[in-house]
Amino acid sequence: MERKKTNLSDYNPDTVPSGKGMKIGIVVAEWNPQITNALCKGAYDTLVANKVAKKDITVVHVPGSFELPTGADTLLSSDTDYDAVICLGCVIQGETRHFDFICNAVSNGLINLSLQDGRPVIFGVLTTNNMEQAIDRSGGKHGNKGVEAAVTAIKMVAMQKKIWG
Fold first, then answer.
1. Is position 83 within any domain?
2. How many CB atoms lie within 10 A of CB 164?
3. Would you say residue 16 lies in a domain?
4. Sequence-ordered list of residues with C-beta below 8 angstroms from that of 28, at least 6 positions apart, any chain
5. How far is it, in rounded angstroms, from Cα 103 to Cα 126?
6. CB–CB of 122/156 below 8 Å?
7. How would you list the strands of the sheet with 84-92, edge to edge?
8. Residues 47-104: pLDDT tens digits?
9. H or E stretch including 121?
10. What pTM did the predictor assign?
11. Residues designated as active site
12. Residue 87 contacts residue 25 (beta carbons within 8 Å)
């Protein structure tokens, strides 16, 4: 019988290309800071562990997850040639439809930005039913979505560099 994987952020470092020379932006929502700061730490540490230079990582904060697309667009429009932008946030289900509107707006905004710009914009937003699930996915028993977002960013940049040169 196969055991269910509990840490969803486990990855094989041998399958991750070197991040040397990559410039990565990280946009972090301030809402639910216990969660988003843990996601940011996971992403930052994973980038560094995979050879992205600390000087080539920029972290900026925006008020909430709804503002992540604007934050990402601001980084991509800056004078720094970012290879990718990681967006980290946490939206927890409440009693109203606000959750649905925020999650849809953020996911659509980030994918549209990535497709229009051509550079990877990574969706590292937790959309959970409660705080316990958010804690479990931000360094708890199910790993850290920030780690997954960082690995995704490195792999996407490496793929583009391989194809485009």
1. yes
2. 7
3. no
4. 36, 37, 39, 40, 59, 60, 61, 62, 88, 89
5. 9
6. yes
7. 57-62, 24-29, 84-92, 121-128
8. 999 999 999 999 999 999 999 999 999 999 999 999 999 999 999 998 888 889 999 9
9. strand 121-128
10. 0.95
11. 98
12. no
